[in-house]
């Protein structure tokens, strides 16, 4: 019996370690859903070029690359690319004039590299994968949260009876609770006409960051009133989360079509 218990523990320990080190940043299903939506709106020429650069890999598979490289110290210099801290009332000009690297700066850097054919295929592949991921991150409101609480990572909450934090709830726990695959999330969404799509695609990364920041402000206010998140939280906020996934996909498609279309 002791040997049986020991064997069970040895099996369980790796699983626990994986759970503790699960990457954040929209979680895998969030990123893959956004990328899947984007792929549906790519022009024929755009899709062909993207698949060439990605060596046949789908946008959904490529979308998690930026989280997968975080364990490699050589890539830690890109950590600041995943977020931006914006003060309430900040202007577009203030965001664009920030000197430190941030997600808005990084998206524009990726676009710059991808538009320049002088860059190697390896550089283009890296920056394309980063772009796919970062446009997703930009639409996760807590990636445009406050610096003092690390985008909600230090805001403790209870998620269906278990300890969590505001950032993690928005990265992955709401999506996990909804219990749909990334393809189901991408497919089961309101149908939009051409004018609605074009309207959602309007703007720049800086403007989209302000849009996410306004949502983050509401999330902070809501969490200060009630930190015990249950079904009512899902009912109120999951439609917003799904809308952000869709916006991210449509806007990523717009950027890629402008580069390659």
TrEMBL record:
It comes from Mesonia sediminis. Residues 1-19 form the signal peptide. Keywords: Disulfide bond, Endonuclease, Glycoprotein, Hydrolase, Metal-binding, Nuclease, Signal. SUPFAM superfamilies: Phospholipase C/P1 nuclease. CDD domains: S1-P1_nuclease. Coiled coil: none annotated. This is S1/P1 nuclease. The keyword Hydrolase applies.
């Amino acid at each position: 019996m002791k040997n049986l218990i020991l064997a069970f523990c040895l099996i369980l320990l790796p699983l626990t370690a994986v759970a503790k080190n699960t990457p954040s940043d929209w979680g895998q299903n969030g990123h893959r859903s956004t990328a899947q939506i984007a792929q549906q709106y790519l022009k024929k020429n755009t899709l062909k070029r993207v698949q060439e650069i990605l060596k046949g890999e789908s946008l959904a598979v490529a979308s998690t690359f930026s989280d997968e490289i975080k364990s490699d110290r050589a890539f830690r210099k890109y950590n600041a690319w995943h977020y931006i801290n914006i003060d309430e009332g900040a202007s577009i000009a203030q965001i664009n004039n920030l000197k430190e690297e941030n997600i808005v700066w990084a998206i524009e850097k990726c676009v710059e590299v991808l538009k320049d054919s002088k860059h190697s295929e390896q550089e283009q592949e890296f920056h394309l994968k980063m772009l796919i991921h970062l446009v997703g991150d930009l639409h996760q409101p807590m990636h445009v949260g406050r610096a003092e609480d690390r985008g909600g990572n230090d805001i403790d909450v209870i998620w269906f009876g278990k300890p969590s934090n505001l950032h993690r709830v928005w990265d992955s726990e709401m999506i996990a609770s909804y219990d749909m695959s990334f393809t189901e999330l991408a497919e089961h969404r309101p149908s939009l006409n051409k004018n609605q799509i074009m309207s959602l695609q309007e703007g720049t990364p800086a403007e989209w960051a302000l849009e996410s920041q306004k949502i983050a402000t509401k999330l902070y206010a809501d969490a200060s009133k009630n930190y015990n998140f249950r079904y009512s939280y899902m009912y109120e906020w999951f439609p917003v989360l799904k809308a952000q996934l869709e916006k991210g996909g449509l806007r990523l498609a717009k950027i890629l079509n402008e580069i390659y279309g």
